[in-house]
């Protein structure tokens, strides 16, 4: 969304940038680190950190800051009010109960995808789940099955704009880091309407994703299944897990 310059409140933007500086890699930040990550001066970062701590969104030991439980008000309000997680949750739970695997619904946010709904894992309590695949987790779009499904929904011009000036980080030896190769992968995803990603985001993890479209045919999210441990041939995933994913996507389309 674009707004007029007069309507833009720079202080709020900087405060949100500081809050977004905290992630799974950097859970505790001081003013210097927050300034570097938010792209603002150290003095400004310090004021924002102190203000956020005063409001209860951060905790501090006087030097370092970390997120307080109050930040969950944002995610809780989203999950309670957004139709997508509420509509998808019963389907995710049913898929997990039927297969014993873990399923998620994911949306695109800039260069990352965000998990907005997630099943439990039924019938396989000892299964090791991939690291960081919790509700609200943010993952690099270029290295995930869901990210490629969502990027495939873009027009050529939109994809070019998304790739412009972007560095595709290498996360494993299998991660695609060249724009030309990623374009080719996305073209294949667009043609077949599903995507398999093998050990590109994390070693020992593979995922299969399909688009979730609304009644008008617009891709609004991606639905995927994530497996960790023994890597299966793509053909096995397509044979065993693609049909229930496609059926679920078809089922949800009339509700989105």
Descriptive report:
The protein is of the alpha+beta class and 256 residues long. It folds into two domains: 5-72, Arc Repressor Mutant, subunit A, CATH 1.10.10; 82-253, Beta-Lactamase, CATH 3.30.450.40. It contains ten helices and eight strands. The protein has helices at residues 10-19, 31-38, 42-54, 72-81, 83-99, 145-152, 156-163, 179-192, 234-240, 242-253; strands spanning 58-60, 65-67, 102-109, 112-118, 138-140, 195-198, 205-213, 219-228. Strand 1 (58-60) and strand 2 form a beta hairpin. The model is unreliable at 124-128 (pLDDT under 50).
Keywords summarizing the entry:
256 residues, Arc Repressor Mutant, subunit A, alpha+beta, 2 domains, Beta-Lactamase
Distance between the termini: 22 Å
Shape: globular
The CATH C-level class name of the largest domain: Alpha Beta
Largest sheet: 6 strands, antiparallel
The poorly predicted ranges are: 124-128
Biggest β-sheet: strands ordered side by side in the sheet: 5-4-3-8-7-6
- Domain module count: 2
CATH fold-type name of the largest domain: Beta-Lactamase
Estimate the strand proportion.
15-25%
Number of alpha- plus pi-helical segments: 10
Number of strands: 8
CATH superfamily of the largest domain: GAF domain
- Mean pLDDT score: 90
């Amino acid at each position: 969304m674009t707004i007029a310059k007069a309507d833009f409140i720079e202080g709020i933007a900087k405060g949100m940038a500081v809050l977004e500086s905290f992630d799974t890699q950097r859970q505790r930040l001081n003013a210097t680190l927050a300034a570097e990550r938010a792209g603002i001066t150290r003095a400004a970062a310090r004021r924002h950190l102190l203000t956020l701590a005063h409001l209860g969104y951060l905790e501090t030991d006087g030097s370092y800051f970390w997120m307080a439980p109050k930040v969950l008000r944002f995610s809780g309000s989203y999950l309670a009010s957004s139709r997508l997680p509420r509509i998808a949750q019963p389907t995710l739970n049913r898929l997990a109960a039927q297969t014993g695997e873990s399923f998620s619904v994911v949306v695109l946010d800039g260069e990352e995808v965000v998990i907005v709904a997630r099943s439990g894992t039924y019938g396989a309590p000892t299964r090791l789940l991939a690291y960081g695949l919790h509700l609200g987790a943010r993952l690099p779009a270029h290295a995930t099955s869901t990210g490629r499904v969502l990027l495939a929904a873009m027009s050529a011009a939109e994809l070019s704009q998304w790739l412009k000036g972007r560095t595709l980080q290498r996360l494993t030896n299998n991660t695609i880091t060249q724009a030309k190769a990623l374009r080719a992968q996305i073209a294949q995803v667009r043609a077949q309407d599903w995507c398999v990603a093998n050990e590109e985001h994390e070693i020992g993890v593979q995922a299969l994703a399909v688009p979730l479209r609304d009644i008008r045919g617009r891709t609004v999210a991606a639905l995927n299944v994530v497996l960790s441990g023994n890597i299966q041939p793509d053909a096995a995933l397509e044979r065993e897990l693609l049909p229930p994913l496609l059926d679920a996507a078809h089922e949800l389309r009339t509700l989105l």
